[in-house]
Amino acid sequence: MSGREVTVIGGGIVGCLTACLLRLRGVRVTLLEAGELGREASWAGAGILCPIHPWRYPDAFTRLVEASLARYPELQARLAAESGIDVGWRRSGLLIPFFGDEPHWRPAIDWSERFGWRLERLDGAQAQAAEPVLADGVRRALRWPEVAQLRNPRLLKATRRWMAKLGVDVRDHTPVARIRVDGGGVCGVELEDGGSLACRRLLVAAGSWSDRLLAPLGAALSIRPVKGQIVLLATRPGRVRHIVKHDEVYLVPRDDGRVLVGATMEEVGFRGGNTVAAIHSLLDGVMRMMPGLADCVIERQWMGFRPGSPDGMPFLGAIKGVPGLFVASGHYRNGVALAPITAEAMAALLCDESPPVDLAPFAPQRAVDFSSPLGYRLSTGGK
Ligand SMILES: Cc1cc2nc3c(=O)[nH]c(=O)nc-3n(C[C@H](O)[C@H](O)[C@H](O)COP(=O)(O)OP(=O)(O)OC[C@H]3O[C@@H](n4cnc5c(N)ncnc54)[C@H](O)[C@@H]3O)c2cc1C
Fold first, then answer.
1. For residue 329, which atom of ligand 1 is closest to its CA?
2. Domain limits for position 196
3. What band does 1 get if pLDDT is binned at 50, 70 and 90?
4. Which of the four pLDDT bands, split at 50, 70 and 90, describes residue 369?
5. Is there a contact between 131 and 241 (Cβ–Cβ < 8 Å)?
6. Are residue 102 and residue 77 in the same domain, yes or no?
7. Closest protein CA for atom 35 of ligand 1
8. Does 300 lie in the same domain as 178?
9. Which of the residues 95, 209, 249, 330 has the least number of beta carbons within 10 Å of its own beta carbon?
């Protein structure tokens, strides 16, 4: 045991996985979760392990994504061994159909060649053969056969079991009201129920709610909730074969025949619930892209709040001026894809070790580009 102690605020995938990796380093970890563990964005997400249109991001982001995705095969095997839960990680591939001369064709090819991502170019007939329910008129398609997906609720369940096995002190239904600081930096947290907890190392992994804790310390990061709604369809297994993305809508086929349709991008604060307009727009997207799915049964719908950042990239690192305070938040549309590298990097930082990747582009104190089209203001294309 290192004798070190860390308190983590937030029981989404970022907080939970970091807690596990800290325990593996011998750190004593207390994890405080406001509600039920893993029931917010990390539960609601689609489980696509690849950014939507990654060629739009800075190269540093691609490198972070690659480092994270490279860790998934081993992580999912470890989770299965520790928890007995198969998180559903599989390389279903990603297919983007093109119905006209769309702007993503060339940048997608250039980016894939530059970073060595396996990519196949399909003509219209090949695209139809690959996805028989695609709408008529598809002229060509791009397919990344190695892109993977997983089942979010299973990922969270497996991680929870692993935390229990590792001895993380998990306290759900324990909302943190305030972070306490003294002359030496972080000294504890005050809980909503009036209780308190002393700590000298604290990780804020509170997703969309992170700024509520950081703002009173003058450390707000402009993290905002971006609501995403999803519809689940039930059909025969194999009817949709790849993750298929076009315009504002994507479809994610599960092995059991369910097809997840996502996701809206809404800036409505923390107003929850599924709305007629959102569900209509998602189903309209299905009808335009894959009209052959018109007979699918609508099984259910849900929503979640992505922790949006102004430039689409997460904040990972120490908060300057408040010794002992660290943040891992603002993962926006890519928190599940980025969870393995986030957890490993944060566990290293919290133990005063060097992270396995350069975190400078993701530093909380970086000069954030508020006009970035990847950030929450001008975002298009859900995930
Ligand atoms: C519809 C949708 C689709 C998505 N699709 C994908 C995808 O395909 N691939 C992908 O990689 N990402 C996707 N994402 C994004 C991804 O889900 C998020 O980036 C990721 O889950 C963020 O994880 P997190 O742990 O930071 O946040 P969360 O999962 O939101 O967890 C934060 C936790 O902190 C807790 N908390 C907040 N305040 C406090 C407090 N004061 N005290 C204690 N606890 C507190 C909350 O209750 C919550 O449980 C999607 C998101 C949505 C909503």
1. 26
2. 5-86+152-223+310-362
3. very low
4. confident
5. yes
6. no
7. 10
8. no
9. 209
Q: Which atom of ligand 1 is nearest to the CA of 152?
A: 17
Distance 306 CA to ligand 1 centre (A): 6
Q: Return the residue matching tokens 């049964």.
A: 297
What is the mean pLDDT of the segment spanning 305-319? 97
Take atom 37 of ligand 1 and give the residue whose Cα is closest. 206
Residues 297 and 179 in one domain: no
CATH of the domain at 101: 3.30.9.10
308, 341, 375: which is the final residue of a domain?
308
Residues whose CB falls within 8 Å of the CB of residue 86, separated by 6 or more in sequence, listed in order: 76, 80, 154
Look at the chain and report how many structural domains it folds into: 2
- 381 in a structural domain: no
Q: Is the pLDDT of residue 343 over 90?
A: yes
**Average pLDDT in the chain:** 95
The ipTM value here is 0.99
User: What's the DSSP call for residue 338?
Assistant: T
Q: In this prediction, what percent of the chain has a pLDDT beyond 90?
A: 93
**What confidence tens digit (pLDDT) does each residue in 255-289 have?**
999 999 999 999 999 999 999 999 999 999 999 99
Q: How far is the CA of 205 from the centre of ligand 1 (A)?
A: 9
Q: Are 293 and 320 within one domain? A: no
Residue with the smallest CA separation from ligand 1 atom 18 is 335
Does residue 368 lie within any of the structural domains?
no
Asked if residue 9 has its Cβ within 6 Å of ligand 1, the reply is yes
Alpha-carbon distance values, 363 to 32, 46, 329, 333 (Å): 24, 27, 11, 18
Give the separation between CA 221 and CA 310, rounded to whole angstroms. Answer: 9
Give nearest CA residue, ligand 1 atom 19. Answer: 335
User: Is the same domain home to 288 and 163?
Assistant: no
Reading the block at residue 378, the tokens are 């001008």
Closest ligand 1 atom, residue 336 Cα: 11
- The conformation of residue 138, written as its DSSP 8-state character, comes to -
Same domain, 175 and 301: no
When pLDDT is cut at 50, 70 and 90, the band that residue 379 belongs to is very low
